[in-house]
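FORM 7B: Structural annotation worksheet

SECTION A. Query
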Amino acid sequence: MVKIMECIPNISEGRRLDVVEEILAEVRQVAGVTLLDYSSNADHNRTVISLIGEPERVVEAAWRLIVKAAEKIDLDQHQGEHPRMGATDVVPFVPIRGMAMEECVDLAKGLGERVGRELLIPVYLYEKAATRPERRNLAEVRRGQYEGLKESIRTSERTPDYGPSVLGKAGAIAIGARPPLVAFNVNLGTTNLEIGKAIAKGIRGSSGGFVNIKALAIDLSEQGLVQISMNMVDTQGTPLYRALEFIKTEAAHFGVPIVGSEIVGLVPLEAMMDVATYYLGVHDFSSEQILEKRVFGF
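SECTION B. Predicted structure
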């Protein structure tokens, strides 16, 4: 069986689409790697990229992307609503077929060592690759963002796993291994960020909410919105509809409407099936009832 691994790099550029295309071109040049999807958000000033292929080829594509992003993105000039600490902010490896998580961890460590040694970019290993318990959580790794890390990186607590304890314009990067997750955002019809913060606090696992949800409130006041931005780390344990219904209930408490939602990047079919069966009230629905699955066998 051919081993297949996915990588979902997030780069800190979502406005200069010509720069995004230059970075994507590096991925497209790697034989055996498929660029599955990418999504740029100007408010977040961030692009989420999904690529897949055999592990060694995916690692090479990730390396080239990191090199080009470091060349093209200056964190001293970067502004956006999404937390970030690096030009390439995060690079997670996800086992898809024929791979154990431990293999993804080893590849993350190998890439991290190379980035630190050759590019002199500080690297933090996170999630399953973390070398410290507190670094399993990306939010903790990225605490203080680029600006705050400039000072705190000199402390023993924030010493990177690879690379120097000093930040250049490319910032730092988190490299790790994790299971698949879904990036799910819900927009509130308000500009009151405090309402968004209260709802995000209520839903995220670290503050007593759903253990499978990481969430923060993002100010999109120029659009007349506040966004609840979530990483759904286990959509079987906590389905998308459960997160949406919780946010609906909390928003109604504040007299605020839900005005839309979005999924950034890719989503497993099973996660969308759960949503459809919940809202349609369908009983005993099976993936075998999906026409394309029966015809094409995917």
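SECTION C. Observations
Residues 4-177 form a domain with the Formiminotransferase-cyclodeaminase; Chain B, domain 1 fold (CATH 3.30.990.10). Residues 46 and 138 are 16 Å apart (CA to CA).

SECTION D. Sign-off
Analyst initials: ____
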